[in-house]
Amino acid sequence: MRMRTKAMMLAAAASVSVVAFAAPASASEETVGSCLAETILEFETDSGITLHELEEAAAEGDEEAKKELETLEEEFEACNESPNPILPATNEIIWGGLSFLILLGMMWKFAFPAVKNGMEARTERIRSDLAAADQAKVDAQAVQTQYEAQLADAKTEAARIVDEARQSADQVRTDLIARAEAEAAELRERANGEIEAMRVQAIADVQSEVSEIAIGAAERVVGGSLDRDAQSQLVEAYIQELTSK
Amino acid sequence: MDLLALEFPPVSHLFEWPDIFLDGTVFGINKTVLIYFGAVAATLGLFFGAGRRYKQSLVPAGMSNVAESGVDFIEDSVIMQTMGPDGLKYLPFLTTMFFFLFFSNITEVIPGIQFPANSRMAIPLLLALLVWVIYNVVGVRSQGFFGYLKNSLFPPGVPVALYIIVTPIELVSTFVVRPFSLAIRLWANMVAGHLLLVTFAVLTATLWESTYVGAALPFAMLVLMTGFEILVSALQAFIFTILTAVYIGGSMHPEH
């Protein structure tokens, strides 16, 4: 239910109750009218005559009736009279004073400190909670700084490790290349040696073969007159001549 | 009292209540006394209820909110404004006084009770005399007897020639009139409020019996006045309390 509806319902209920309970506003059932009526009724019951008859008798000059009427009018006046409302009543002073003193005592000793202590406890609690929160914040900041420092260290360390790895990789590569080059040179040298030996061998083989062939050919030409040694020398000389050319 | 054919109860019948218990003795208990008891019970109930609430939780709610607002109000708007931090020792006294006066005023508009206990002179007069004793004792204690008299009767900063006029006025106002003005202000306001409410209630009832429609206007006024009297109840309790603080503060610090 909305606040305004609630407030209006409350106001309506209050308004109705103001009228419904209005009767006790008058301290007693007695009013000036009822007081007058009771006085007249009492007079009529006691004397046996009506007020009207008394007034008539007084108007006719009856002294007793006049006196009676005066007394009655004084009683009517009394109905309108009120005691001074500014004067305090003794019973109200006694009970009011006692009530206030007892209330003051109870409040001073028990009730007020209960509330005040509660309020102070809350203030203290909030203060300590705030202090704790501040401390927690400071701690968290310290931890953060520490973590950040550690992170920076870790980064430096990682960079160093990567650098080292790169350097050793470079080293390994250089070594490998150098070794490969050395091995290749060695292999080439060996191959060259072998080739040279084979060439020398081949030349020797060819020389001997050619000399054989030449001798054979010469033998056929000259009819085999030349001995073996002479032939060889001849061929050798020929080959020498050829190579020197 | 017949006014315009209205049956208006005599004034004394609106304020003087017959004894319910111990009838005829000086300890007679009537409606006014029962309202005093009710105000004591309401104040204690409020504060003990609030105190109990703190045992469960320090977060204020319900009754503890009301009690706290009251205490804060007296502390900030009454004591700190009039007496300064020195006056904080009077906080329990002034808080008690405020709530007791408020609860015995507010019964003026509570259906079924509809009578302000402070429209009887007993409590306004007693409390005013108590305040008179307190501020005089505080004055003598903090300034010495002659110092207090001197500062009260010869306020500093006034041209000497004017003391001829000022001193008798101060004498009467500080030592004689103050308690009575304090008491009568509260009492008269509550009397007037009660009379207003009764007047409009009687008018409404009478016009309802004769015309029905004619009752609308006085009824509207009755509702309006009921709201107004709630304000007056709180305001008079506040005025009584703050004047008490002003008087005690004046005795503590004559320079102000």
Structural class of chain A: mainly alpha
Mean pLDDT metric of chain B: 91
Rg of chain A, Å, rounded: 74 Å
Structural class per helix/strand content of chain B? mainly alpha
Order of helices and strands of chain A: HHHHHH
Topology, number of strands of chain A: 0
Give the termini distance of chain B in whole angstroms. Answer: 51 Å
Low-confidence runs of chain B (pLDDT<50, min 5 residues)?
A: none
What does it look like?
The complex is a heterodimer of chains A (245) and B (256). By secondary structure, chain A is mainly alpha-helical. Among the domains of chain A are: 28-81, no CATH class; 195-244, no CATH class. Helices cover 86% and strands 0% of the residues of chain A. In chain A, helix 5 (90-222) packs across helix 6. The radius of gyration of chain A is 74 Å and the shape is rod-shaped. Mean pLDDT of chain A is 84; it is low at 23-29. Chain B has 256 residues and is mainly α. Chain B has one domain (2-252). Chain B is 71% helix and 2% strand. Chain B is built from 8 helices and 2 strands. In chain B, a hairpin with a 2-residue loop joins strand 1 and strand 2 (6-7). The interface between A and B is large, with 56 and 77 residues.
